[in-house]
Amino acid sequence: MDAPDLLARLCRLIDARRWPELVPLLSDDFECRYVHTGETFDRESWVRLNAEYPGFDRLLVEDLVGEGDRAAARCHVTGYAEERLLHFEVASFATSRDGRISRMTEVWTDVAQAPPAAARPA
């Protein structure tokens, strides 16, 4: 499987909450970096983080591009907190090696945030 196929499958498995099936898609030395928080996860901690994330609802792929050993996906993620449905967007960038994802970088953001007020000249 190339990186686009691997990343598409990974996203489908997350949406279906099929957590044990994520492990074979990830290399033994897998590493995922969250740009927005500076955190880095190995294979076990990243799968556990996803499986135990409170209120997770859905992960829907909006766009996926790539070729060979590189792929990127833009996904819409929903989850519940205090009985409210929250919306997030995530961009995931994956590198594969030997038929498994070896590196991933993710960038998460909330949806419907107000942009900062534009600076206006005095």
Largest sheet: 6 strands, mixed
Point out poorly predicted stretches.
Answer: none
CATH topology: Nuclear Transport Factor 2, Chain: A
Radius of gyration (CA) equals 16 Å
**Helix count from the secondary structure assignment:** 2
Total domains: 1
Task: Kindly state the number of beta strands.
Answer: 6
User: What average pLDDT do the residues reach?
Assistant: 93
Distance between the termini: 57 Å
Molecular shape: globular
Q: Note the beta-strand portion.
A: over 45%
- What is the helix fraction of residues, given as a range? 10-25%
Label the CATH architecture: Roll
What structural class do the secondary elements suggest?
alpha+beta
The top level CATH class name: Alpha Beta
How do the strands line up in the largest sheet?
Answer: 2-1-6-5-4-3
* H and E order: HEEHEEEE
Structure description:
With 122 residues, this protein is α+β, with helices and mostly antiparallel strands. It has a single domain, classed as Nuclear Transport Factor 2, Chain: A, CATH 3.10.450. Helix content is 19%, strand content 50%. The protein is built from two helices and six strands, in the order H-E-E-H-E-E-E-E. 20% of the residues are buried.
